[in-house]
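Weekly structure sync, notes
Attendees: PL (lead), two postdocs, one rotation student
Agenda item 3: pending single-chain targets
PL asked that the sequence for the first pending target be pasted directly into the notes so everyone works from the same version. It is reproduced below exactly as submitted, 168 residues in total.
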Amino acid sequence: MAKDTLANEKQMVLFELGTETYGLDIASVHEIIRMQPITKVPKAPFYVEGVINLRGRVIPVIDIGKRFGFEKTEEAKNNRIVVINIKDTTLGIIVDAVTEVIRIPAESIDPVSDIVTSGQSDYLQGIAKLPEKMIIILALDKLLMKDAELVDMTAQDEDVKQEPASIK
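Predicted structure, written out during the meeting:
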């Protein structure tokens, strides 16, 4: 019976951007670290903050708030970098705060309405309705794969010219 319960739940890492709560499947989260100095990368897209050295690995860092088109918020002590793995690529995303890891029953997750989404927001996986709040569940692999390719190209070849990418 325990396996049936686990199969009907999603374990999510919850984080905040502004006043909203977002969730990521825990399987895509490698680790959560405190903010650290970020080295700028020339000609990177506007939402790429740069790269960090994480135990000898160079990791691109994306400001997910900028990527979503949100206004820049002040840096705070709760800001974190969530290190995620997407199809053999490791990236960091800056979030305002990581709040908790929870299990969400599958029946509490509704698909996102076509009215809310557009062809450019297929990274919205669903909305979880919990008694105390609603959580926007993200499929960052759909949003960030193109970003990872852009960062790799920019870091490898400074002569490559990058235009700010639109969300697709």
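Discussion points:
- The longest helix spans residues 140-156.
- The first strand starts at residue 9 and ends at 17.
Action: rotation student to compare against the earlier draft before next sync.
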